[in-house]
Predict the 3D structure of the following.
Amino acid sequence: MNTRDKKLAYQIYLFLGALFITSLVVSNLIFQKFFYWNPFGDVTVFGVSLFEISVGVLPYPITFLITDLISEIFGRKKANQIVTAGIFASFFSMGLILLADAVPAIESSPLDDKVFSRVFALSPIAVLASMLAYLFAQYIDIAIYHFWKKLTKGKYLWLRNNFSTFLSQFVDTFTVVGLLCVFGVLSWDLFFGLVISGFLFKILIAFLDTPFLYFFVYLIRKRFGLEIGEEIDLEA
């Protein structure tokens, strides 16, 4: 690979990393708002309305699409580096928000302390639960993705994309809801309903993002002349 192509590949990696970190940080900022979306009518699961979920899950599937794309093109190591950077960015952003919440507002401030705290101040337990769930899920997603990639010798992109996402999304949903119940943020009687509802919604989104993964992988492979299963080594 010549210098020009290497520079372009690195720029693509940085751009994908920026999208990943932005999606992750935003999901933690907006998760306190809930919405209801159910094309199947009024269906309940263990007392919880199906797809009665936090808006924080909306950008979350984007992070798994991006890590699958990075895994496919740039390899497992680069995908794990992005996940680690995302963890750091998330905790750093939460620290800034807590600092801003601690600073008293002046009388002429458009937002007073009460409104700011209600909108932006986050429960440390909720953030910790979310981050632990995310950490487990993303590393599992990357590991399973590369297991299937090696097993299929780079073929069947849809298989590794969906199989890795299915398990990792279940781990993510199960862990975050479980931790919130353990710490008393949620009631245990909501556990199964929230896990099933959240998991089914994320699986639906995972199905929908498969064509996008194929499209972006196709464009990058064509631009850099990559064979099926071949990766770009940014450190070479």
The radius of gyration is 20 Å. The chain has a mean pLDDT of 84. Helices lie at 3-30, 60-74, 76-102, 113-120, 124-151, 157-182, 191-224.
